[in-house]
Amino acid sequence: MKMNHHYEEISQSYLFSTVAKKAADFQKKYPDREMIKLSIGDVTLPLAGAVIKALHGAVDEMGKAETFRGYGPEQGYAFLQEAIAKYYAGHGVQLDPNEIFVSDGAKSDLGNILDLFDQDNVVLVPDPVYPVYVDTNVMAGRKVLYAPANEENGFLPMPDDSVKADIIYLCSPNNPTGAVYTREQLAQWVAYARKNDAILLFDAAYECFVTDPALPRSIFEIEGAKECAIEFCSFSKIAGFTGTRCGYTVVPMAIEREGMSPNKMWLRRQTTKFNGVPYIVQRGAAAVFTEDGMAEIQHNLDYYRANAKVIAGALDECGVWYCGGKNSPYIWMKCPGGMDSWTFFDWLLETTGVVGTPGVGFGSCGEGFFRLTAFGNAEKTKIAAERVKNAILSLNK
């Protein structure tokens, strides 16, 4: 028997596992010092009351023979598909519920969608980028090309006609940089994909943070995208489902390659390899789109937006370049003093007790940059921002 040796081509340690270990070592070394984590994109506020009510109601249903449910449809219950379609319609995007596939999260789908594509396809990803995009393709043995994102292009790489790719990953608002594509920029990517007969894999997990009406929240707001794009989204950020696990992928029926329908292929894949998201969780997810649910989650999103503003304000005061912080929960800052990412990580942790994420962990173009998240506790975020500001200012004395 033979093993998949492509695993030897990726780091044996996942980025956030390394960050967690360093943080744990610091806490062990300094048990009396307060450590504040602004590193991973995990939410801290509890689920909305409307969601909790729906979860309780679904649990009660499962306790009665007449309302008990066993195996559900692998692609999701119709009530949730229809609620998601209505949510998109509110942003001007019309979807057939049969184009919406409910899952246990965007991360899973971003990796699993690769089952649809031949190993010989060339993959294009921005650099820096969410590690899952790269790692899952390397594991499968695909060739990966990189579109450099940097300070000069605002960490929003654009198509290069000299580069030929078949599968293209985009994330907007971006993780890790917080940068957001405009409609005009996404239109160029759609045109590039159609010209090259490629498919865009569009990660919209952070769309709920977009408040500027001029900025798109879905790739399907762009004309022609339904012929070349698949969109991934999640309830993790919009509704705090990081521990509850629910997301969805939109695979338009209009996409066709080599006479095959990705929509039908994904349905076949999911019905074969996936047993569906629990009924209880889907009821909770559907409650997000109720009037009460939307009002409550907006309150939570505003809480995180305020955190982002606090962090951005602190960086403004000490003159550090950054992007993100608006229309995004992430702040992507330039490491002060010419420090590399891991040196700044260690220095910041040792000096302030604040944990962030080294930019180089997201790709070589992330070297010299650092990601901070707005998903923390508000009071602790204010303390952390003040510590970071004072520490950076001390470098200039």
Question: Can you put this structure into words, describing what you see?
Answer:
- There is one protein chain.
- The protein has 397 residues and is of the alpha/beta class.
- Helix content is 39%, strand content 14%.
- It is built from twelve helices and 13 strands.
- It has helices spanning 15-29, 49-62, 78-89, 106-112, 131-140, 183-195, 235-239, 262-273, 279-288, 291-317, 341-352, 378-395, and strands spanning 36-37, 100-103, 122-127, 143-148, 167-171, 199-203, 229-234, 247-250, 322-324, 330-334, 354-355, 357-358, 369-373.
- The strands form three sheets. A seven-stranded mixed beta sheet has the order 2-8-7-6-5-3-4, with helices on both faces.
- Helix 2 (49-62) runs antiparallel to helix 9, helix 3 (78-89) packs parallel to helix 9 (279-288) and helix 10 (291-317) packs parallel to helix 12 (378-395).
- The chain is globular and about 65 Å long.
- 46% of the residues are buried.
**Mind summarizing the main beta sheet?**
7 strands, mixed
Count of helix runs = 12
Total number of β-strand segments?
13
Unreliable segments of 5+ consecutive residues: none
Strand content: 5-15%
Mean pLDDT: 97
Over all CA atoms, what is the radius of gyration? Answer: 21 Å
How far apart lie the N and C ends? 62 Å
Judged by helices, strands and strand pairing, the structural class is alpha/beta
Largest beta sheet: strand ordering: 2-8-7-6-5-3-4
